[in-house]
Design a protein that fits this description.
Chain lengths: 264, 318
């Protein structure tokens, strides 16, 4: 089963490498966009010494984890942005004719490998941040540093699935979905302490954006949560990711059932 | 192979009424349709645009869930066992592709083998067969986007057959094809049905497809079945007239007064005459004998009604 999806992905990759120069430029452009965002953070720190109680390298660590996670999610779940087109053109019906699940089929229907620029930059920023923060390394923390971007990618992917499932009801719902997915990336790039009130609660725990970079970041840095959360929150991102994935799977199933029941 | 009983499918249509108010109305795209298709049959499912053909096909293939009614295809309920069904039937849409646009045709077939988990030897055997019969060898390594419509359609049909389905569902398979491509495809499908025993269900606007491929016709309009039966029986029932065209040795006055003949039209100053007679009142032989008694006949032919005519009259009868 996994082999089938892998083959589908490889097939898409081969299609893309036929346009090699534009590919290189696009990867570079993606990385550049990320670099500018990071530059914005450092410029901000030339005026303030702390942001939401965190100093510059700590913020960069959270930014880097979030950026890597979002880059990885974008590589696979990003294809869900095409869902309205698939529905409109009837190609979603073709996916229903195959003996495979619809969600993985949509995710591997194409892969925009140029988005790897974002992931690569995120990894570079992570390497920088991990070496410029005073981290008391333990085997558990090494594992967490590796797991955090992956768990974050699954959380982002789940958000993506839920947001895009809206398109089964509203074919014009893509704008709404984008504001949720890209908006949650903007949220997770900074410590949640810079936000306040209902927005923080919504984005941190309902979406579960705080588990992408904020809590794992705290655990890596060995800091207490300024908001008073217990320390174990920094270690449970993989579990949160699992729960998010299951939830997203259920939402998708419900949405497809709706489509087959009342779709055109 | 297919069992459909009292099948209904409603859609909710929202229309604007006034500035902000919206009215929701329910439209029945398929209204109490029933028919059976036995294994090995070839059935044409025809009707005008918007008659409910595609909606029925989508319910048969598990894409859409019926509002009410009973469907069994290859022994399973399509809406519940979508994936199971997908392995047992092949579907090809004339206007949608299941191939990978920028990959060579051969690679699409490889991917499908993996998706349907077809045994490598079975796959190779079926592919070799299709390559030969559909003459694919010239463009097997070309990306699908560079194929002509006729080539692509042959690819689509092959793609639908590689997992060895018991039933092949074709939605407008010959739409947009040139005459030669149409003929080649029809010939292939006719052989598939006759020799392999693969059950065929096809929707089409091209009645030549039906004439060539489908001994049986199900006609649908506005969501309900208008007629179901062998093409010949429908012809006899709906269009009881036949036309005898005779070429005479010498021009003659219209040959009137023959029993059972309801209309006479002359051409070439009376050299060629079209005699329309009712099949239930007389026979072609009797009319020919009566004509021969009145004039010297050079040549003659009995015209069967065109299938378009049959369907048109069925629609008109409502």
């Amino acid at each position: 089963m996994v082999e089938t999806y892998a083959r589908l992905l490889v097939a898409r990759l081969r299609g893309q490498f036929s346009y090699r120069t534009s590919f290189t430029i696009e990867v570079f452009a993606e990385a550049l966009v990320q670099a500018i965002e990071l530059a914005a953070i450092t410029i901000l720190f030339s005026h303030v010494t702390a942001l939401g109680g965190f100093e510059v390298h700590e913020v960069i660590l959270m930014y880097a984890i979030s950026s890597t996670a979002f880059g990885l999610a974008d590589l696979t779940a990003g294809q869900l942005n095409e869902l309205p087109n698939y529905i409109r053109a009837g190609s979603f019906d073709m996916l229903l004719l195959r003996p495979l699940g619809t969600l993985p089929q949509v995710m591997v229907a194409d892969i925009r490998l140029k988005r790897i620029g974002r992931t690569l930059f995120g990894l570079a920023a992570m390497a920088y941040a991990l070496s410029h923060n005073d981290i008391a390394w333990t085997p558990a923390k090494v594992a967490l540093a590796a797991a955090a971007p992956l768990a974050g990618a699954v959380i982002f992917g789940s958000v993506w699935v839920v947001a895009c499932a809206v398109c089964f009801w509203l074919v014009e719902g893509q704008e709404l979905a984008n504001s949720v997915t890209y908006g949650s990336n903007a949220f997770t790039s900074y410590p949640v302490t810079v936000y306040s009130g209902w927005l923080r609660r919504l984005m941190a725990f309902v979406v579960p954006g705080a588990f992408v970079a904020y809590y794992p970041g705290l655990a890596l840095l060995g800091r207490d949560d300024p908001l008073g959360g217990p320390a174990f929150l920094g270690w449970i991102s993989p579990l949160v990711a699992l729960a998010a994935a299951v939830g997203a799977g259920l939402v998708w199933r419900f949405a497809v059932r709706h489509y087959r029941g009342t779709g055109s | 192979m297919i069992e459909v009983r009292e099948l209904c499918r409603e859609f909710t249509v929202t229309t604007k009424v006034g500035r902000l108010r919206r009215a929701r109305t329910k439209v029945r795209a398929v209204d109490s349709v029933s028919f059976d298709v036995a294994a090995g049959e070839a059935v044409g499912y025809v009707g005008p645009n918007g008659a409910g053909k595609s909606t029925t096909i989508k319910m048969l293939t598990g894409i859409l869930v019926p509002t009410s009614g009973h469907v069994r295809v290859a022994g399973v309920d399509p809406s519940r066992a979508r994936r199971d069904l997908a392995r047992r039937i092949g579907v090809a849409f004339g206007q949608r592709s299941q191939l990978w646009w920028d990959l060579p045709l051969r690679d699409s077939f490889d991917l499908l083998r993996s998706i349907y988990r077809v045994d490598a030897r079975d796959h190779a055997r079926r592919l070799a067969e299709c390559v030969e019969l559909l003459d694919l060898s010239g463009f097997l390594d070309r990306p699908v986007r560079q194929l002509s419509l006729g080539q692509r359609m042959r690819g689509e049909v092959t793609a639908a057959l590689l997992h060895g389905p018991e039933l092949l569902v074709l939605d407008e398979p010959t739409i947009g094809l040139d005459l030669e491509s149409k003929e080649r495809l029809r010939e292939f499908l006719a052989d598939l049905n006759a020799q392999r025993g693969t059950t065929l269900l096809l929707t089409t606007h091209d009645l030549d497809d039906i004439e060539r491929l489908c001994p049986r016709l199900v006609v649908i309009d506005r969501g309900t079945v208008l007629a179901d039966g062998p093409l010949e029986a429908l012809r006899a029932e709906v269009v009881p007239e036949r036309v005898l065209v005779v070429d005479l040795e010498k021009p003659s006055e219209p040959l009137t007064g023959i029993r059972g003949v309801v209309d006479v039209r002359i051409e070439l100053g009376g050299l060629r005459q079209h005699l329309t007679f009712r099949k239930d009142e007389t026979t072609a032989a009797a009319v020919i004998a009566a004509v021969a008694a009145q004039a010297d006949v050079h040549d003659l032919v009995v015209e069967e009604p065109e299938i378009d005519d049959v369907v048109r009259r069925l629609y008109a009868r409502r």
